[in-house]
Amino acid sequence: MSYALQRFGQMLVIVIIALLAVFSTQRLAPGGPFDGERPPPPKILENLRAYYDMDLSMPAQFYTYLFGMAGREIGDNGKPGKAHWFVVPSNAEITTLGGTNDRSTAEGVFVRQFCPWDQWLGQVIPGAREQLREQGTVFRKCGVVRGDFGLSMARRSIYVNDYVRDGLPATLKYAIPSLLFALLLGVPMGFYAAYRQNKPADFFMITIGMFGTVVPNLVMAPLLIFLFAVQLDSVFHWLFVETLEWVELGRRQRTLNWIPSGKTGGVMHYVLPTLVLGTGLLGRIVRLSRAGALEALRSNYVRTARAKGLPAHVILLRHVFKPAILPVLTYMGPVTAFILTGSLVIERAFSLPGLGRQFIAAATDRDYTLLMGTTVILLLAIILLNFIVDLLYTWLDPRIRRGGGRS
Amino acid sequence: MSTSQTPVLSIKDLFIEFETPDGAVKAVNGINLDLFKGEVLGIVGESGSGKSQSWMATLGLLAENATTSGEVTFDGENLLTLPPKALNPIRGNRIAMVFQDPMTSLNPYLTIETQMVEALRIHNKRMSKPDARKRCVEMLDRVAIPAADKRLKQFPHELSGGMRQRVMIALALLNDPEVLIADEPTTALDVTIQAEILDILLDLQRERGMAVVFITHDLGVVAEICSRVCVMYAGRLAEIGPVQDVFTDARHPYTLSLLKATPRAAQSQAAQSDDALYAIPGAPPNMRMPPPGCPFEPRCACADAHCREQVPALEPLQGSETRLKACFREGSSAALLEALVHER
User: Fold this and answer.
1) Residues of B with Cβ-Cβ distance to A396 under 8 angstroms
2) Which of A146, A198, B280, B335 has the fewest CB atoms within 10 Å around its CB?
3) Distance from CA of A391 to the nearest CA of B (A)
């Protein structure tokens, strides 16, 4: 238990350092979210920058990003004025600059700023406060600390949280099946290959694994589309005519519903993405589990197990499984994090919604908040999965269990 | 030793070859050996003499790249040609093995209990888990492991080397085997622990009347516990005989050199050497290209042209049934020793 707590503390430190690093590098890099071929007029630019707190100093910006900000005074000529962290003077008004009007109601204006202790500060139209509070979570949080990643800078009416909330489930729909596909197929394949080392079955498994590793997703995707959606259609047509979803193309012509046109949904749309993403992983998993199993099979304790007269399947499942699965586990930690946070190639190739494209969009648009948001989510996923892998390690290997933590 | 009875296990013309990228290694070149009921047979030889491999072969534990020929007969069956399915009921049940390295021979990921109970239950399908557990505790008690009940729940890394080797012995003896092959069971242990382990082994051997094959390069241990000894060199048998006879009156130059090279082999003639530790000159032959004649010929002080051309067969000594040697040279141990000393 103390081990878990210790690891949790380490994770926290890593997250803070990573946040600082991403935050400062993106802001130090040339260019910004409001630069473009046709930059907005200076006055609007000034307001925009103020709205996103970019007129503040870098440390101040980082602070507001983490904890949110109390409010701002309205300066001369309605310009954004002084920033207040915790306490706003009574004469200060909460400002709404930028495209947040859609969230404002007749009774009250939408305000994004709350103080760190969740206490409403600033002036609101009387009676609106309670109503605003009731309306939803958006009003309740501010700052990354409370899980609010802020507004996107490129598309100013969309919250980063909303991007993630919409994108993540869509990504998980093809990410999780592909992970399961690769694991459930790859590990037995690797074990079997090790068991039949240097026999035809072994070469067959290695070749499949090699194919998966070597052919990149952006080649595999069109390849599979060509195979399944174009070439093999007649075969499927002939095999199970009515059991699968078909799309009518025209007179006496139809195709299997491999790729979403219009809206996504149904199992069919996720078959090909799963295959593409899965085979890439599969190759690595086959090779890793094969290598792990081979090492275990050559060990003295497996020799002892054989001398006991145990049959091969008992040796593989009981004596080889645990040591052989460890390298796969190490690999799966970060890879799962990357898969879960989406793949642009898959999403583009199969016209799926997902997180993957947000990553690229955030980087090319210099959408600071979106970039921070996606990076933090990837970071958290990596750290969390590595943590889980470590816990699994201690669970699988008794030597770590008793040696490291005093539990 | 009553040699007139039928052997429990007999090895005939055993050859073992390992296929390597640099060519075939001829590890064992024609061994003929009988193991009798209730005896402790010592197998002595230096590293690479094929002493372990020839016994690994009997249990089908050789590496993948090994090819064997010959016969290992046990209960009327040739173990070398048995498929794994037919071999499994024999190994661990009727023939058991204790390995050299107790640190790595137990699975670090499984508890002692799992590893012991599985060995019992694979051969006694009807045995319930509690019964098997009880038997394991008894067996651990028998090999003098304190708090056996608690030890069962532990993992190998929580035990000391000596403890682990005791567990290995208990594991091997769980099914009351007829033959126990002990492959250097004490090499990795401290001398004091070594003595304890040997005591336990000998006790159990007497109690159960099983045949024990004791593979070692420690002549002292052989003198202490074995009834018969078999000296191996370069994949061949050099000399076989009752321990006392072989150690006091060695007839093969290699045996004699070995005895001479042993520090403080008190009762043997070889002990009357100089102050410096004796070492046999030269190195064992390259087993990829073994010499055409006697394999010991290049290092032998008594060799002549005949030895270089022809491999001496393993033949009984004149007037003795129990002793065999593979050397052309006739004569007593003293004469051989003289030649050895002379050569220095």
Assistant:
1) 109
2) A198
3) 15
Rounded Cα gap, residues B156 and B112, in angstroms: 7
Q: Which structural domain, as residue segments, surrounds residue A82? A: 41-152
Residues A354 and A392 in one domain: yes
Chain B residue with minimum CA distance to A395: B109
B144: Cα within 13 Å, side-chain hemisphere: 11
A297: how many CB neighbours lie within 10 A of its CB?
Answer: 22
- In terms of domains, do A132 and A200 share one? no
Locate the chain A residue with the closest alpha carbon to B177. Answer: A308
DSSP H/E element including B163: helix B161-173
| Same domain for A190 and A303 | yes
For residue B121, what is the nearest residue in chain A, using CA coordinates? A310
Q: Of A93, A121, A152, which marks where a domain is finished? A: A152
Domain count, chain B: 1
| B109 touches A at CB < 8 Å | yes
Give contacts of A304 with chain B, Cβ < 8 Å: 99, 105-107, 168, 171
The answer to whether the Cβ–Cβ distance between A300 and B99 falls below 8 Å is yes
B30-55 pLDDT per residue, tens: 889 999 988 999 999 888 888 899 99
Q: How far apart are CA A135 and CA A129, in angstroms?
A: 10
Specify whether the CB–CB gap between B229 and B42 falls below 8 A. Answer: yes
- Chain B residue numbers touching A196 (CB-CB < 8 A): none
Task: Mark whether A98 and A179 lie in a shared domain.
Answer: no
Q: From chain A, pick out residues whose CB is under 8 angstroms from the CB of B155.
A: 398-399, 402
Yes or no, beta carbons of A301 and B108 under 8 Å apart: yes
Tokens representing B102 are 């107790």
Q: For the sheet containing B77-78, what is the strand order? A: B23-35, B9-20, B66-74, B77-78
Q: Do A399 and B119 touch (CB under 8 A)?
A: no
The answer to the question of residue A22 being in a domain is: no
Residue A163 gets the label, from left (phi > 0), alpha (psi -120 to 50) or beta, of alpha
Residue range(s) defining the domain that contains residue B293: 252-344
**Chain A contact residues (CB < 8 Å to B):** 197-198, 299-312, 314, 318-319, 322-323, 396-399, 402
Nearest by Cα to A24 from A65, A62, A64: A62
Supply B57's token pair: 């072969």
> Which runs of consecutive H residues, i.e. helices, occur in A196-270?
200-214, 217-224, 233-239
- Nearest CA among B99, B193, B210 for reference residue B143: B193
Does the interface ipTM go beyond 0.90? no
Q: Which residue in B109, B122, B158 is closest to A308 by CB distance?
A: B122
Among the partner-chain residues A197, A319, A402, the one whose CB lies closest to the CB of B107 is: A319
CA-wise closest residue to A344 among A354, A329, A330, A332: A354
Residue A317 DSSP label: I
- In the A/B pair of chains, how many CB contacts fall below 8 A? 85
From A299, A309, A322, residue closest to B88, measured CB to CB: A309
Separation between Cα atoms, residue B277 and residue B230, nearest integer Å: 24
Q: Which of A295, A298, A308, A395 has the highest number of chain B CBs within 10 A, making it the mutation to test binding with B?
A: A308
- Print pLDDT tens along chain A (407 aa): 677 788 888 888 988 898 899 899 988 888 888 887 788 888 778 777 777 778 888 888 888 788 765 555 555 665 666 665 544 333 334 444 333 333 444 444 444 443 333 333 333 334 444 444 444 333 334 677 767 787 788 877 678 888 888 888 888 888 999 999 999 999 999 999 999 988 999 999 999 989 988 998 889 888 988 888 777 777 776 776 666 666 766 666 667 777 776 666 677 788 888 999 999 899 999 999 999 999 999 999 999 999 999 999 999 999 999 999 999 999 998 899 888 888 888 888 888 888 888 888 888 888 888 888 888 888 888 888 988 898 888 888 888 765 444 33
Do residues A339 and A279 touch, judged by C-beta distance below 8 A?
A: no
